[in-house]
Structure of Carbohydrate porin:
Amino acid sequence: MNLYFSRVLVSGALALLAGRALAQRGVTPPSDKLPTQQPAAASAQQPIHFNPDDKSQKWSVHFQQTIIKQWHNDLSPRYEGPLSLQARESAKLSLTSTLFVGRRLWKGAAVYFNPEVAGGSGLSGATGIGGPTNGETFRIGDPAPQLYLARLYLRQLWAIGAEQGEEFEDDLNQVAGLRPKRFLALNVGKFSIADYFDQNSYAHDPRTQFFNWSLMGAGGWDYPANVRGYTVGAVLEYVSPEMALRAAITSMPTDANGAILDYHYGTAQGLTVELTKPYTLGGHPGAVRLLGFRNQAAMGSYRLAVRDIGPDGADITSVRTNGRTKYGFVVNAEQEVSPEVGVFGRFSYNDGHNETWVFTEIDHSLSVGATSTGARWKRPTDRLGAAAVVNGLSPEHRAYLAAGGSGFILGDGQLAYGLEYIGEVYYSIDFPRYHTALSPDYQIIFNPGYNTNRLPGPVHVLGMRVHVEF
């Protein structure tokens, strides 16, 4: 473990030196999205990257590194199961480093390549809570940093009509140029489906915003991905000033929480559709997004697992079969209140009949929150955020856990069900000269894992994040 921390420190030092070198050569930060509020209307109409036809720039190269350390108070549980939040554990540290390379190819086309290094662990291995506390961690056993391919995909854009929109800047997976007002785009390859769906200006990115899994996205959306959050497939987009419509077919992992993707799209796939409607309220931009999804994979049935319970308790793996599905939807809204303050909310739901396959063990979730820049206290590029989440399970999922069953996130051995409540507050202190932000964070969790009688009180989680981006 000493070797691991040494690698983290060396990697962080190199990132800071590189950022300082770029600053000394006069290279400005790629965008304002780290320290300031992102315009709600822009986020409503577009995903995080575009590739139009302007020939003035061929390449886009950027880098990010995020280090998060978290600790929770000592607990006095009445009992523990195989996947319970541990009563006492040392502070946990995570690291991700990503290189973003983009190359314009021909008219309207670009290819994007993102190698990534990730290591470390979440609290209790990112188990024991429906909404785990660190969105930068994965549920893998080896904490040593690993190099892997995060994204490699082609983006082809076709303008609709002759109208041209404003120019946009070079950014992460975005080659600078002109954006058409109306266009079709096809994205094919390996990517994160969250790059295109369930966007939110105020709660979407654990590298710069809220840490918790159920605030970085819709908790009830078991979104298609491997264990590190990436998938292979295609996303088709229609974008205009009035609305945006996106549809995707992407691969599912061969096993729950698995690293290997299943490319037999006839029997295993994720289908996702989302409609985005931007609007203006009192002169301030906002957006509403309606997302629907259907996932198909070799899932186990909670009802059958309880019916066929064995001497060791219910076992979801014993009742898996091809072709089972999970349906659900997400309502996602954001509203700018002033140039410094924005509010947001999400409600997500899935049917919860079959096992959680990808994201986390949440069948329905409601989150609300607000963020503000630090302009009022003369820190305009800082950001303050506060939010609250309520997570819940389907009746079938509750019965399975109460019968001693385990998923890949939860498994206390028994369950006295209650809703899981999470509150989070963070403050991002920006250092623009060094392309760096430092963010202390606090989370409080009631009924972790939906268990009302396992712990006598709430869990308090303190965290610190260092994020470098240039």
